Amino acid sequence: MDEIRIQNLRLRAVIGFSEHELDQPQDIVVSLRIGLASRRAGETDEPADAFNYRTVTKAVIQFVEGSRFSLVEKLAEEIARLAVIDFGAPSVEVAVYKPGALRRSDSVGIHVTRCPNDYSKNIALLSIGSNIKPEENIVAALSHLRRYTTVLGISPVYRSAPQGYFDQEPFLNMAVKTHTLRSPAQFKADVIDRIEADLKRTRDPANKNAPRAIDLDLSLWNDEVFEYGAKPWAVPDADITRYAHVAIPLADLAPDYAHPVLKKPLHIIAASFDATELKRVDLDFGIISF
Predict the structure, then answer these.
(1) pLDDT digits (tens, 9 = 90+) for 204-250
(2) Per residue in 238-252, pLDDT tens?
(3) ω into 170 cis (within 30 of 0)
(4) CA atoms within 13 A on the CB side of 281
(5) Residues catalogued as catalytic
(6) Distance separating alpha carbons of residues 25 and 45, to the nearest angstrom
(7) What are phi and psi of 223, to 5 degrees?
(8) What pLDDT, on the 0 to 100 scale, is given for residue 289?
(9) Alpha helix segments (H runs only) across the chain
């Protein structure tokens, strides 16, 4: 297979978990070897038939310098995903090096090789809500999601009235689309429960609608219908057809996603609600944290 090679992109990124690395951009070096699906450019000599390496390079630069990472492994994985998923590369090798990371060594780095089959993952759509320090906890939940899984997209954030128990503050709600290799039960245990514990979610057994620091629900999983876990929890989440604050963010995120039971796209379901109760809220998610 032919390859485009982009050698030694010298970038600056916040990367690491030691105290001196947390807020200080560091030099990193990124190289890519991108497989080509076609040899047409070599036959025609036409720019339109060539792989646009400038576009993918610009996307890598913007992504790396606008993000925060703990590990070079996560950074390399996300660059590979960008090349394969967003730019359709049939294969990619990504090398990421941190110069001066190890004493007596020029640099320390990692090489990863990926192809489309490596991203044959489950797609999970989540609903997120909070009414205890919601501006802080919604941002923190997204940051944790990016650390524990691969976030593909987010909806706008909405303010909505509480449901069931009205003597409490309004909620902020949003939806998130993720890629994961986990099963639903693993996703619940490894991602949802972990984030809710990290953000100190507590439950009142006498009031299931009580205020909460964070609430994450698995709303949709691929195009599947099932129950999982001890409760058990149901997918698709029944709240999609009950509440505007669930349906509308999901429809913003994936308007043409067909509800696997109703066989209707989410934008049709969302249009059945009175949206006047929802108010858009602009949150500053700042630098993306991994």
Answers:
(1) 777 777 889 999 999 999 999 999 887 899 999 999 999 999 999 99
(2) 999 999 999 999 999
(3) no
(4) 22
(5) 98
(6) 41
(7) -120, 35
(8) 41
(9) 40-44, 53-65, 72-81, 134-148, 184-187, 193-198, 244-253, 266-271
